[in-house]
Write a structure and sequence with these properties.
The chain is of the alpha+beta class. The protein folds into two domains: about 1-50, no CATH class; about 75-230, Nucleotidyltransferase, domain 5. The protein has four helices and ten strands, in the order E-E-E-E-E-E-E-E-H-E-H-H-E-H. The protein has helices spanning about 135-155, 170-175, 185-195, 215-230, and strands at about 1-10, 10-15, 35, 50, 75, 100-105, 110-120, 125-135, 160-165, 200-205. Strand 6 (about 100-105) and strand 7 (about 110-120) form a beta hairpin.
Amino acid sequence: MSWSRMSFKGQPVWVRVGADLRPFLDSQGRAEMKYRQEDGKSYRPSPGNLAPLAEEASQPAPRAEPRPPRAPRAASASSSHPRARAASNTDDHAPGTIHVWTDGACSGNPGPMGVGIVVVADRERAERGEYLGVGTNNIAELTAISRGLDLAAQLAPDRARPVRIYSDSSYALGLLGKGWKAKANQDLVASLREQMATFSRVKLVKVAGHAGVDNNERCDQLARQAITFRHDV
């Protein structure tokens, strides 16, 4: 068996294939997939979600131009800060929207922390994993959002553009979008609220963790790699 390039929901991935170049399936009928061939972690998608890459298909069908990534159907959290308010639904897929995916991980609680970030702005994409040292999962989740906004500002400096932040942390989104009062990490929360206020339109979106949401899974992978290697990835 070997690894072959395929497409998973429109994103290039590596898939384990047999001699016939078809995905090799396990006993549950699932394929094995990696986002990068050198990654240690693999995923088990349904083969129905895999397809040949357009440039590698023998008779490729006409394909539409790639669209900005679609957000999952999830409830959004409106912010209590007057400038960091939830954007209107018209911003969801508006041209120029910056999509910021974040995740924080902790090996033990407290324990070694890592964050993973994926930022997509038009056709630009940036990824980052960062090792934070020892702390709690809540600190990691909040810091992930801060680092995501830092990366968004580097990738797309125009802070008037709408920003969507995706996180699976109810704690972080409650503090930043529902007006929860911080009983711990007060300085970090206050700093993050100020950082969000430097962007004119911010919308917070809750996504389900470990549910196969592509960019959320990638953030988790980056965060855990940072913890494993104890350095940025």
